Amino acid sequence: MNGQRPPNGSERERDLFTAVYEGDEDAVVRLLRLGVSPEAVDEDGQTALYVAAVSDAPGIVRLLLSAGAAPDRLSVGSDLPLCGAACGGHTEVVRALLASGAVPDAVEAFGFTALAWALRCGHASVSEALLAAGADPNRPGPTGEPPLVTAARRGSPACVRSLLAHGAGSRVEALTEARRWTRLDIATELRASLARAHGFGGEYVTRRWPDSVSVELVRDGTTVAETDQGTGHAEIVEVLEGVLGLG
Is 173 helix (H, G, I), strand (E, B) or coil? Predict the structure, then answer.
């Protein structure tokens, strides 16, 4: 004995979260073998699995699931690991959770499902993984909006095609939404949405890529908020017109 007390459970749980944040799979394995629960929560009520999911750490996610972490346990009483991974576009994590029994259409706080998050954020590969696992392509989002309309607004042709391949309806409504966005300046709309959410005042920084636009709201040199959107609305119009026989 070296005179030092062995770490207690809470200290080892803190070590587990440190390992998760640092992506240290070896440390996670060691701590789980020492008896740290894979269902451990931190002082804020976050589960280790949720932190690993939103951190895009598929290896650690698999370790925690193999050790007994419940894939659909809510973190902080409101957040699902599957939804957190879907929101971040972490496809491999989403697949690991689904393979371990996560329910594709499980609902977290405010009525969000993983598919609703994936479509809202334009993550096509995540959307396809969820749909392939049985997510309902017609389940309304938290505002009652059909998934295909959400994908059309987002400007993601890949998400639209994936939904159509899995039988999504509301095609006329989605076409109307896509057509509407072809007449709008996306950067202007994004700036307006940031102003509504965070108040007026500050500098807007716009960045454009071949398939998307992002806008940051900056105040006193600090980014207050950021939003982005796809620019594939014209392509979506063509896809939906073809499906509806209107081309």
Answer: helix
Measured CA to CA in angstroms, residue 235 lies from 82, 156, 227 at distances of: 29, 9, 22
Cα distance between the two ends of the chain: 80
Query: Tokens representing 31?
Result: 């701590």
Predicted confidence at residue 9, as pLDDT, reads 56
Asked whether the beta carbons of 176 and 145 are under 8 A apart, the reply is no
Q: Is residue 2 part of a domain?
A: yes
Can you give the pTM of this predicted structure? 0.92
Q: In terms of DSSP H, where are the helices of the chain?
A: 9-22, 25-33, 48-54, 58-66, 81-88, 91-99, 114-121, 124-132, 147-154, 157-165, 171-182, 186-198, 233-243
Q: How many domains does the chain have?
A: 1
Q: What is the DSSP string of 72-133?
A: TPPBTTTB-HHHHHHHHT-HHHHHHHHHTT--TT---GGG--HHHHHHHHT-HHHHHHHHHT
In a domain, 244, yes or no: no
Give every CB contact of residue 164 below 8 A, 6+ residues apart in sequence: 148, 171, 239, 243
Q: What is the pLDDT of residues 17-32, one digit of tens each?
A: 999 999 999 999 999 9
Q: What residue numbers bound the domain in which 122 lies?
A: 1-136
CATH number at residue 36: 1.25.40.20
Rg (CA), the chain: 21
